Amino acid sequence: MIKHEYNPDYLNSFLDYTVTILNKSPNTIKEYNYDIAMFLKFIKIRFNMTKEKDFANIIINDITIDTIKKIKLDDIHAFLSYLTNNYQSKPATRARKASSIRVFFNYLSSKANLIEINPAQDLETPKLDRRLPKYLSLEESQRLLTTTDNPDNRNSVRDYAILTIFLNCGLRLSELVGINIMDINFSECKMTVIGKGNKERTIYLNKACIRALKDYLEVRPKEGIKTDKRNSKDALFLSERKERISGRTVQHIVDKQLTAAGLDSKKLSTHKLRHTAATLMYQYGNADIRALQEVLGHESISTTEIYTHVANKQARDIIESNPLANM
Predict the structure, then answer these.
(1) Measured distance CA(238)–CA(181) in Å, rounded
(2) Taking 60 as the threshold, does the pLDDT of residue 181 lie above it?
(3) Nearest residue to 23 via CA among 232, 200, 231
(4) DSSP code at position 125
(5) Which residue in 41, 102, 274, 275 is the catalytic one?
(6) 195-251: per-residue pLDDT in tens?
(7) Nearest Cα to 193, choosing from 295, 87, 109, 280?
(8) Is 271 labeled as catalytic in the residue annotation?
């Protein structure tokens, strides 16, 4: 939960702007607040405004807009360098913080008109490592589903439906736990999910998904469901406590079933199931890259293109595995 009293007014105004105008999700708002607050604490140290070195003890609500006006691009670069040297931050982490800073200063300069010069105008995004995503093979995916469909597991119908949706639709974890029953249109074989940036998109359901969902809805609890802020009564997937299932519970379910299927749960996760769905769609469904981008809810086509690299790598591996390769 964001404690607005700890922030300077202009930071709170920025957060309000991201909610009302940019329509960002609550998780994104929290990330913006965390990133900018950390940056401002660094600024207090860099500008000799505090002798405190522990970020947890540095207050920022006393930083005036006049101090913000003194910030230059070099100061932002120094912050990103500080993250690397002191926190061993990965490129993805630094890229996120750079993005937060860029949006923040754009708001201050061009929206709120609180500063004349935007120091982040020429801020570049740290180069990311383009690692190929880990994913399950078709045979491993089939084995996982078979293992999940286990009568010894009292939640087997629910767990099977969860994994079926993951592996066929490529949802994010947050998207899956956020599904409400009313989001599903069985007559048109589709459902609506809320993705990153609070963006709504349509997911089409194949026969396996429809069957798994209908089977689950027959055993889903109908009485004693908790009335809470998470709208558990509307939720598709419920926990044993009869409330909307949490992301942590889903991760536990996936880990447990991966282990039962003889797969390494330490190297795989719910997000790897999303990678699996995307890879299978591209390899076996002859999916157009633009169509795949829409299915996955990627904002940039470059994010989706990594699955074409996966296919290319597999093609190279097949050639290399030819027994005549070393002749």
Answers:
(1) 11
(2) yes
(3) 200
(4) P
(5) 274
(6) 887 888 999 999 999 999 999 999 999 999 988 878 899 999 999 999 999 999 999
(7) 295
(8) yes
Catalytic pick from 24, 94, 172, 220? 172
Task: Give 74-79 contacts, CB < 8 A, sequence gap 24+.
Answer: 75/43, 75/46, 75/119, 76/39, 76/101, 76/119, 76/120, 76/123, 78/42, 78/46, 79/39, 79/42, 79/43, 79/46
Q: Mean pLDDT over all residues of the chain?
A: 88
For the stretch 113-172, pLDDT in tens is: 999 999 999 998 877 666 666 788 889 999 999 988 777 788 999 999 999 999 999 899
Contact 114, 68 (CB under 8 A): yes
Burial bucket for residue 226 (CB in 10 Å: 0-12, 13-18, 19+): middle
Long-range (24+ apart) CB contacts under 8 A made by 245-251 are 245/177, 246/177, 247/173, 247/174, 247/177, 250/162, 250/173, 250/176, 250/177, 251/173
Nearest-Å Rg of the Cα atoms of the chain is 23
This prediction has a pTM of 0.63
DSSP 220-277: S--SS---STT-TTTBSSB-TTSSBPPHHHHHHHHHHHHHHTT--TTT--HHHHHHHH
Q: Is the pLDDT of residue 314 over 60?
A: no
Distances (CA, A) of 288 to 18, 91, 294, 307, 308: 33, 30, 10, 11, 10
Spatial distance between the Cα atoms of 314 and 320, rounded to a whole number of angstroms: 10
Nearest to 76 by CA among 112, 111, 101: 101
Q: Contact, 245 vs 238, CB < 8 A?
A: yes
Tell me which of 143, 226, 230, 298 is the catalytic residue.
Answer: 298
| Cα 126 → chain centroid | 19
Catalytic residue among 196, 230, 233, 256: 196
